[in-house]
Structure prediction request, 459 residues.
Amino acid sequence: LSAAREEVASEGLPALLAACSDVAPPAEGDGRAAQVGWLLCLLASEEESASFVVAQPGAIQALFGHARRRCTRAQEEAAWALATLSAEAQYGRALAAEEGTFSLVLDLLATPSQAVRLQAAWCLSNLVCQQEPRAKLVAVASGGRDVVGELVRAAQGNGSPPSPGDTFARQVLGCLGSLLMEAPMRAVLVANGSGVEPLLSLLLCAALADGRLSANAAVKAISHACQQPHSLAARLAARGDVVDVMLALVQPAGMGRAGNRVGEREAEKCEAAVSCVANLSFFASQQGLCTLLEPSRGERGERAPGLSAAGLCRLIPSLVRHLQSECCQIQAHAAVALCNISAAGCRDAVVESGALEVLQLVADSAQPEARQASARALEVVSKDLTPNSRRVVLRRSGSGRRPRPGSARSPLAGGGNWSLTTRADGSSSGLLAKGAGVSRNAKPFRSPLTWPVGGLEAE
Prediction:
């Protein structure tokens, strides 16, 4: 059967495409056109024949035509074929290069058929895992289509938050997270303004929900949304519940060891949550102590009752415990967060929490990311302390567990080559990729780690 499919794909595709073009689309999925479209979808979905379909000029556009038929069955067949092709990186790039791909898939997300919507969500989530297709979808959003708004409405479905076992919502959340990695996408949201609140409401609600996989995707999306430049941190800070939500997300929980899939996912979620606090506290450090003592204002002048010095201080104990994590990436993000919270006017609270001793232990560890971030945090937190005062603070013993130098890395660790840098004008640019100049006088820094969160994932 496999050999027969390969033979049909290699020798019969031109005839199939000619048949597609000769027959007008029927109102229902009956007749020769429906059979030809179904056969084309079958060939595109099979490993032995998919490469021939992708290589044949006009074949993908014929699949698009089948998806546009006024027939649920035809749409299901085409959506399945598109989702299957998108799961392979090279086929996904070929799909994204075709005219009208993203417009069609977004249209399929809004169809009444649950099966069609699910396959469309898988397709879109797979595509945006790659940088080139992701940039094309961002270009669609920049061109005026409300991509994020459509995804938010699709995830909300009947208006209620995603249920724990909702695979469709999980894929849409993953797609949102991948899109928010891109600064141009965040720039579109900041410029538009009106779509940010529904997006943040969806992500925060899903992040606090019981569904482990959906919550994982949502927390990563929030972390990406708070990246610089064009950060949505100001809009997040404007929410009155921001500190309570962040506190719930960064509460230390059992994080299984490497090889435990559930444990890895919990570690990923924890890393994303601590990274989000690091980026949010970077925004706070830029506002200054005076504005933090009063309700602060974001980029568009909105008041931020939740972001205050007292609120940031509530996060410190959890961050100190995360410094003792077995994951060096979590340690690094926690150190960044404590550094920025200290720079935002909460240095005394950080010192009183016992963070200096734990930061010193991490700064002596073998992991470069955690060591660098902790050393910078020590520099900021202990600023203005006399040598004797610092020795007194660090003299306490037994209050922190020394992190193990050989501890497992997070499965998300994708950027270990960080360096503290400054811009040409002398202002801080945070932790950036290796290769920029090093500055010992860098100001509070942001956490730059991003990762795709969509795509096929084993249960």
